[in-house]
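Hi! If you just cloned this repository, the fastest way to understand the data is to look at a raw example. We've pasted two of them here, unedited. The first protein comes first, obviously.
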Amino acid sequence: MPELRKDPIIGRWVIIATERGKRPSDFVSEKKESSDRFCALCPGNEAKTPPEVYALRPEGSPPNTPGWRLRVVKNKFPALIAEERLEQTSTGVFEWMSGVGDHEVVIETPQHNTRLFDLDVEAVADVIWAYRERIHALKQDTRFRFVMVFKNHGVAAGASLEHSHSQLVALPIVPKRVFEEMEGAQRYHAEHHRCIFCDIIKQEVDAEVRIIEQKDGVIAVAPFASRFPFETWIIPEKHSPSFEEMEDYHELAQVLRGVLRRMDRILNDPPFNLVIHTSPFGETTHAYYHWHMEIMPRVTKVAGFEWGTGFYINPTPPEEAAQYLREVSP
């Protein structure tokens, strides 16, 4: 039977449409041949990108030259720019502010046709560490309140470049989605004096049905109110409000790589979006908020009903999705 499931953090309702149930084979993506187009992110083309702001390369290796294993550069076509003054204006009911922010690209590997989950665990940990370092750096600008870390994999997920990369956007405001999570978590903490995320982890560990992978303090689960087939959240088991302050980066790399490899095996390299939700800068959220990573394969379409109602229709119950993912080796 279909179910209406309420997200315990922000109160959003999701329809689990079991009558329209789909198995992994129904979502498999067709493999696309890689093109031979010029790639500005490949080694030897460093002059075609803005100068690097962070890199992992041999000691003594000059910046903006080949030899690196990871580079971070400013986005050549940024969504927001740091050079603007932060100004807020309103006219009647309309309110806006200047497009102040920063936009960076993390080039995850020098190898053009290598995907993030093809890398070894140490290289994935390097990517995660780069996120940490850049958040700490962007945090120094007092105009910024939040950094969104995200990865678009595949054209259907919004990736405009084939070369494996992810992005960071520093914002002068807290995104609505994160703000809603914080509000929900704060309400729960006020009533129960506990972290909602910690309680979810405990309940999922006890139930075992939606756990995909669990390793050394990091857990991957299919959320109870999953919006999309095979949506997965990766959460540290130890309470931690800020991604950049956590310690288990190697363990996180193991679980992230494992989850993405499992998705690749059963969904045939699906397009996906990956985001990190963490505490805003300067907010006192330690008691109630818990950073986490969300991975959303783009295997169904969001259409008129979803846009018009705010409901999501998910044809694959998260319990089944978790089982499918558990049963394949990473």
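Ok, and the second one:
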Amino acid sequence: MSIEPRKSSKKWRRKLHEVIYEADTPAGKTFDVILLIVIIISLILVMLESVPKLGERYEDEFIIAEWVITIFFSIEYVLRIISINKPTKYIFSFYGIIDFLSTIPLYLTFFFGGLNALIAVRSLRLLRVFRILKVTRYIGEAEKLSKAIRASAPKIAVFLFAVLVVSIIMGTLMYLVEGPESGFISIPVSIYWCIVTLTTVGFGDIAPVTPLGQFLATLIMIMGYGIIAVPTGIVSAEFTHGSKNNQADSSSEKATEYRHVNTQVCQNCLANKHQDDASFCHKCGYSLDVN
């Protein structure tokens, strides 16, 4: 007699899991869209509440709206936990921690005041939009860019070291040429000015006044344009090189993998990136059938 309730409970949890975790199903997509809308509304309310006139005039309305949204997120968080077989997998996952941090700020106001602004951490939940837009199809390209950046790291590190040496030399020269009376009160301050000028930021808090100092500043500004372009060129070259190698070595199997990977999430271990026609989890072997 206890078998039927167990089956019913298991089926109910699977259906709940399908709605909350799956973006491939109509119900899952609808849930995610509603969730994103609520997150955006919550962020807008936090921003509006920070405006003094609006915050004072509509204080009660803001508080009520925040509590309604917080309760919604709290229920969603609990449902996410009970709809999977291993709750700790979700609780200590990246999204699980973000969901928890976006839920507790308003509750903490009972014990600590002035924490309402922490609700803005909910903006991190907008990362869930990737599941709705199915950007997993771009995983391959993102991985290429990541590899290009890693491959460029040693060259960029050497380049930045060279820029630092140039900044120290030019900063020291500017200190000797301009001196404290022009605002270059020390070598570290002069190096700071050089870096600001070299990166074309130009705060304008310090400026050379002597002809020689202005000439050196002009050289630094011109160098700045080239310095900005170098890291971009290094990464672009590595990316192009990696793309050519991938085109030469890529197989139809790998292309199919990125083309047909979906956002289905295993109820048991929360693994994703399953094939469209997969019936079992590729990580733990748990059934993906929700019927």
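That's it. A detail worth noticing about the second one: The chain has two domains: 3-134, 139-260.
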